[in-house]
Each structure stands twice: as structure tokens, then as C-alpha cells.
Amino acid sequence: MRSSFRQIRKGPTKPHISNIISKPQSQCAPVLSKHSYHVAPSMHNIKQFDSPNESPSSENLVKDMNQNYNFNADQLCDLFVSKAATMPLCAAVESFLKEKFKASTVIYWQEIPNAQILYSPTMKLKNDHSNGIIGTCYFQRTVMRVPQNSAHPSFSSQVDGKIASNSSSLLLFPLYDWRNALCAIAEVVSDLGEFSQDDEVFANWFSSKFKLFSKWLKQPFVNDNSLHELMEIHDHEAFTNIICRKMRETFDCREFEIWTYQKKQDKMMKFQEPIESTEGGIVGDSLTREQTINAISNRLNSSYNSKIDGDLEESVLSIPVTEKEDELVHSVALRGSNHDLFNKDDEDTLKKLAPFILLAYANAQEFSGLHNDVKSSREEQDSLAILLDVIETMLSQLDSNKLYEMILEKGRSLTSSDRCSLFLLDESKESLASFYQTGLNKPIVIPVSNGIAGRTLKEKKVYNIPDAYECEYFNSNTDRETGYRTKSILSVPIYSTRGEVIGVTQMINKKGNTPFSEWDGKIIQIFNIFCGIAIDNAKLYKESVDSSNLLKPFLNTAFALTKSEDIKNMLNDILKNARVTVQAERCSLFLYDESSQQLSSFLADGGKVPPTIPMNIGIAAAACKEKEGIVENDVYKSPDFNRQIDVETGYKTRNIIASPIIGPDGEILGIVEMLNKKSGDFQHSDLETTNAFASFASVALQKNRLKDIAQYGDIEVESSKYISDSEKSLYTIPEKLTLTEEEKKTVTSLNCFAVDFKGVGHIKELFYFFNYFNLLEKYKVTNDRFFRFISTISRTYTTTSYHNWTHACDVTQYLTYQLITSHADKIFNSDELFIMLTSGVCHDANHSGLNNVYNVKAETPLGILFKDTSVMEMHHLTISIPIISQSDINLFGSFDDNEIKKMWTLFINLILSTDMAKHFELVKKGQALIENKEFDWSNQEHRLLGMQILIKIADISNVSRPFEYADKWCDILNEEFFHQGDLEKSSGIGLTSPLNDREHPDKPKSQIGFYNFICLPLYTVASQIYPELIVNADSVRSNLEKWKELAAANAAKAEENKQ
């Protein structure tokens, strides 16, 4: 035998090779695969014996085996078996018979049915079935004793004359396999005289033994180790190289091929090369007719096609294999045997190997596809991580020239492009100027209507062009001027924070000579959002040298909200910071008195103000009525201006800003006025700044005693319903706020639906969570103070559909569940547990249901105030910190001065970590620590990361709840998204996310992306840090599969509707 594929007489035993429908013989293990193959039989008639005269009957065989021979049958049987075990079957037969008969020549003529010939592997001779004495034996199927070679009527000098001399005696007899099919003719040549009757008896005996043993002797066994190597997973290219090399070695031939034919589509391929089904040549004919073809000469075959079968005359063997499920036909084909032809052993071995080869081939194709998907996914995740780093650096750059250079370089690197151009619309809006274009020394100025950049600007859409010269909008003048050759272009518009197109980034010539991908377009669209923000920031910085000092008054204002319990001092700090920031000579704050319909003076910074202002006249009154800020730079020309105030105060007003103070429900609380800009006129940016300070004033007024007297009274009334006087000073859970045992099991499990605990149920579960870890007693928080904290913070939460009080309690419940399940309550100390639960309660205080992107893009006061940071998270902190610090709550009152700083820092870090903009950074950091085995609980930064990951997961915990709950939460969240989308459409800023589009919802598709991209990486990191939390990650995966099923069902339904 010629190869290791056919040396070991056993089948494959690897467990992953099984379940082939048309499986190999019983010696081989079954093959498991989703591919089911049927090997086409040889298309020849295997002659069966229809009568006792044609073949030895069973009775005759038994009789022969039981008779007394004049030879030692057992000894001869052992000799033949030993030879067959150590050499090819043909050689074993020839050697055995030569020794037995002391013959000059023995030939084993192997039957090759598909070629209609008998073939001698030893002598390399071919003989037609009908030719010579050998042909006669083939057709008679009996033992033939020929006394003299040349005297036989069927003697052929061309065949018989080459084998033996004219006077030689011949003994010929057929050999059958265990299926009673003729497989060979044995021819014995003797020069020592005629063969006897005893020799004929021996021939019959040997034929019967051969038939008996043929099931084990004739099988084309396959080397298990080689098959195992074949079945190892490779990509398509590597597998093709390996299988072609091995098959050439195995069959000692010139070439090996795998073909595929799709019957319904009439499509044919050789490996992955398309072939016209009418031009498939010999292998193509084998595929379409699903018949084995063993052609000794390709040129003599009726299906020969020189384009496919080549000009070289050679043998071809094609074995078709039908994949039943998909109605596909495959072929494994050999070309150019170095032994003139492919014999029956070659044919049987190839049939045996075919299912394994095709299974491995299918696995290689699937692996290549999966590998490409994983590679693409990994590249996308890496590019997002890089993008986050770029954004952080870019948003901190206020120098325009350096910013433009950064945009060009980072845009190019994000997309692996050769060059990047930045086109910005000039003030006239008639030209586009490119700044510092990579690869060019001079900027290029073009009319706004020219080229792909102009088209991108005009149509406000992305252009992904594989070949620039095939695009009608491409202006090739730049290439001619520079000598550069543009191939692919990705052109993406840049939007300002006001939603206006202000420029275009163009990525030029993707490296690798490939087009830009869909992902490249998406990543640059995201990149350009922040380019627009950064460009606006840089312009603002350029317009005002003092803008870098704006942050200090804001921070002072935020600090004033936390440090002062006196409302007047608090508002005075806010007012003073506002006046300094906008460079006004004077400022004042008036509170609205609904009963008297007047604005009453509360504070003034810089001069005398009237005690009251009527609501029926004046610019301040107009701003209150419209609930919008007003800038008036020539007040005496305004019909709304009340000149009487200047008369009473003796102060001459030139220009004014009036910004209303508006409560969370839209009610007017008061007005902030800025008078007389120290230099020049008030700008729109000054109004935005004043609006931001007015928002601070609103927070202060809402959450402090000036408007909380009635509220505290409500809390006292509410508290008395559940807490007796004797229980108020205790730390144990009040009797009326105690959960049942069944409820305790629910709130410490994954299968908890927070909506079921609305109302007093939320109070009960919070008492239970904090007492579970004995936090209230340890930190001396009495029942009265804790109830006051819960009531006060709960009232800051709005009635938005998702980010409401129920969500806060849901997050706190999931935090508790995680701490208990993972035994992390044994890792973290009481301080950390206390802060984690408190952060869960406070993390979305006063959430408006509008995300950070909306606040920045819509230029809400919070968006303006915190646009360089986490907008809503900073707001949640400014709301919750004063409540925690309130004298009748003072949740952190037991900490000393050194401890309190640490607790506040931890509290702030945990709430800021819930910003989705920090998501990838936290995941990436966790993955790196785990992969490098560096995570250490004794490291304070690592402990903080461990806590941040727990609260991050709790914030999106709905995805791991039972699917029934996950689905309900998805609907609740979508309603909030749709509300934001409605506002975005009505305000003209455009949808900030496809998820906000009420008119085109696709719940399953949106969830699949969210699970894959956001949830699973976070849950996986968590399960690596806290192994017991793998149950949550598994639940996410289970829900993901259900979303995929729904998506597939929707797609099928949509396709059905189309038809």
C-alpha cells in the first residue's frame, strides 16, 4: 500500500467523527455531523450466483471443509492469513499460490468493474473482460485447468503469450468476496507439467477460504491517526492544502479535487471556484448523473473536456456523494495515477474516505466563516475601545489646529485608511476648506457643491464608494494635481451640537486594497458625533479666552448645594457664581408668589432691587410666562421692559438676561436676572450659562427647607402609618415593614420582578436589604431617619416609564442578590456594602427619562452644564448628596472627618460608573486584569472595579431575569426611548438612536445587538471575578437565544408577507 491512510486496520474512534448516514463498514466508528452523506454505488452489475452450477453452494462448501484433504489445510490457512496480514492482498495471494504450486508465475487479476477490465497490480497489465483465457475464466466463473497455453481456443498471444510460454500449463479460478461478488481471477503458471484433479480441489478450497476471510482481508482500512489529523479543525485554505497533499500521497497520483453540485440551482464548484455545469468534464458528468466514474484514459471518456480535464492523457476517478438534507452532490476526485490507473482498492478506499473528507471540508468552511465573524467582531470591539480613548483625548483638546490634526490622524487609524481629509464649512457656507489633509502639504478649498464631500454635506448621508472613478460625484482634479491615486472613499458628515452639518470627514484608500466596510461607516459616524462636539468646544474656546474659567463657578455652585443647609446662603453662592461667569454688573433672584401673582425679591448681588415685580409687565414677567430665557441688549427698545424699576432704583439698565427657574413638573419657581454686561452685549452662550445656574437654583429650592416644610409634614404622616413611636429610634425592621418569608426568598433571587413590589413593598425590601447586612445598626441609622431618607429620595424620582423609583429599588435588589449569591458580602467590608446599597438607591435620582446624548445635543441646561462629563450622573449626584447630608437624615453621620471623604469618593465613583460611556472602559479593564491574572482584592483600585461592575450589572439586570420579566422590562424601556425619540423629532435635532424611532420598532433585533455588544462582555467579566455569578451570564445567553428565535420568526413572517 502506498500511504499511511491505509495501513492500520481499524476505523476512526474519535467521538466527534460520527453519524454519517451511509456509514463505513462496521469496523469504523459512526460519524456525527449535521451533514448526511450517501456514497453513490459503482454503476456495474455484480454477477450473483443464481444456481449451484455457478458457484459452490453452502452445502458443498461445508462438505469441502469437512472432507479429508491430501494437504494440511489448517497449516496452509495460517500461512495465507499471515501473508495477508503483512502485505497487500494481491501480493499475498500471489506469494501463497506460488509457494504452494511451486509455480513459475502467479497473477492476481483484480476486477475493476467501472473500467470493465481485469488488472494485475504486480505486472501492471490490463485485460478486457472478453479477452484471452483470462476472459474466458471471468465469464465461466469456474476452475479451469489448461494443459497447454497456446492450445486453448481462447488463447491470445497479446495477453496469454506475455504471461506464459506456449507450452506452459495454466490453472485459473475465480475469487469471490463475502458478498458473493467476483473480485479477482487467480492465474497459476507451471512449467513442470499439467495441473491435477487435486490441484483443482485445492483451488476450490482456497476460493472458499478466500471468500470466508475476504470481509477482513479486502477492506480498505483507514489509518485512525491520519483521519484524526484530517478531522482537526482548520480554516478552508489550510484544509485544502493538507487534504490535497495527503490524498496525492495516499493514492500516488497527480491531483485531488473536491467538487460540489447544487441540483436545484444547477450550480457547480471545484473547491470554491465556480464551474459551468455544462463544462464540468468527467467529474461534472459524475456529479450530475451521481455515478462513480473510473476512467483509465480521460481522453477516451465521452465527457472529456480539455479545459477541465487537461491536455495530459491520464486516469480519472470520481466518487459522487449525495448530501441528502440539502440535495447537494459532492465529488471527491483523483487525477493522474502514477500506476496507469486507479484500481478497485483505490476506488474502495476513496469511497471509505469520502464522508470523512467532506465532513472535514464542511467543518473547515464553517470554521473559516466563524473565524472571520469572530475576527470581525474582535476588530469592531477593539476599534470601539480605541474610539473611547480617542474621544476622551479629543474632547479635552480645545486648540483648533491641534484638534484638526488629531481628527485626521485618529480617523485614518480607526479605519486603517491611507489618508484622511477634513472639510469644514466656512462662515459664508459657500466653501469647504480641508485642513491639514494627511499626505498633502497645502489645504484645498472647494465650492460647497463640488465633489463627494459637497454631496455628503448637501444630502447629509454617508457615502461608501469602493471605486472613486466609478462615482459620478468624484472630482479627480485633486488626484491630477497631486499625483495621488484615489481608489476607495468613505465620506461621512459631521454634525454640530445643534444638529447642523458643519463639515465632512473623508477616509481615502482602505489598506489592503479592499472597500471600506459597513462597520467602518458606523465607527466614523460615531467618531464624527464627537468631532462635532469637539469642534464646537474649540470654537467656543477660541471665541472666549476666559471660557476656561467657566468650570470653577459651576463647581463652586455644585459644592454650595452640598455644604450649606441654609437656603439663602446656598442661593447666594449660586447667584454670585452666575454673575461672575457671565460678567454682569448686577444680578438678582426673585421667587414667584402664586397667591399674589408677583415676583418677590429674595437675593441681589451688586445693588438695590425692588421688593416685588408684577407679573403683568416687564421682561422678567415675560420670561416666566413663556418659560423661556430672554436676552435683550437694548432694553429701552423692548415693549416688555418696565422702565419704572430704573426710576425706583436709580440704576440705568442697558441690557438684560432673564432666565426662569422651573421645577420638575414645569411650575415656575422664580427668575434669575443678569443686568448690564461689563463689556459689550450679552451673547446666546451667556443665556445658556444663566439657564444652567437657574437649574441649580431650581434644585436648591426644591430640595431644601424653603419648599420642604409641607413635604416633611407628609413624611411624618406617612411614617406613622408603618413605624410606631417606640420603633422610630430602633434599628430592627418595624413590624409593619417586615417581608414575609416567601417575599424574602423572592427579593434575594434572580426571579424577582420589581413592579410587583410597588408602593410600600419597595420600602419593605430596602429595610430588609440594609438590615440583612446589619448596616443600619452599625452606622446608627434609626428607623425614623432611614424611612425619611427613603421617602425623600423616592420623591426626587420622576414618573418616567423606566428610570423611576421602581428601577432604583430593582437595582438595589439585584445588588443584594449578587452580593449574597457570590458571597461577595464576605469580601467587602461594611463601609463598602453600605455605600454600594446607598448608591443603588440614589443612582438615578431625578432622572428625566432623557439620556446624556439628548441633553448634550438638545442643549438642555444640564447638557450645557455637564457636557464634558457624565451629564445625568452628575445631576443624580447633585440631587442625592444634599438629601444624604440633610440634618434629619445624615446617613453618613457616623463617619469621622477622614472616613467621610473616603465614603463620598466611593459613592461618587460608583454612581459615575453607571454612565454607559464608561461601560467599555470598565469591561476592558476587567478583562485585562483577569487575562493577566493580576486581579487582587487587596488592591483598592481592583476592589473599586469589583464594586463598579456589580452596580453596572445591576443597572442593566433585566437582561438576566427570566425571559418573561426581561420581555416586560424591554417594553417599559422602549416606551421611554420612544418618548425621547418623539421629542427629538419635534425639536428637529433628529433621532440620536434608531431605538428611539416609535414608527419602526424592532424589539428582537435591538435586543440581540444590546445583549451581544453590551451585556455579555460585562456579565462574562463579572463571572470571572465572581465565579458564582456564571448563572447570570448563562441566563443572559438563554434569553439571547429566545430573542434570536423571535427575530428569525419575524424575518420569516416578513418574507412570507412579501410573497
Entry keywords:
1059 residues, alpha+beta, Beta-Lactamase, seven-stranded antiparallel beta sheet, 25 strands, 15% strand, elongated
Brief summary:
The chain has 1059 residues and is α+β, with helices and mostly antiparallel strands. It has 36 helices and 25 strands.
Question: What features would you describe in this structure?
Answer:
It is built from 36 helices and 25 strands. It is of the alpha+beta class. Among the domains are: 73-218, Beta-Lactamase, CATH 3.30.450.40; 237-367, Beta-Lactamase, CATH 3.30.450.40; 405-531, GAF domain (Beta-Lactamase, 2-Layer Sandwich); 563-711, Beta-Lactamase, CATH 3.30.450.40; 727-912, 3'5'-cyclic nucleotide phosphodiesterase, catalytic domain (Catalytic domain of cyclic nucleotide phosphodiesterase 4b2b, Orthogonal Bundle). Helix 12 (400-415) runs antiparallel to helix 15 (518-543). The longest helix has 52 residues, at 344-395. The model is unreliable at 1-36, 40-66, 545-552 and 705-712 (pLDDT under 50). Zn(2+) 2 binds at residue 844.
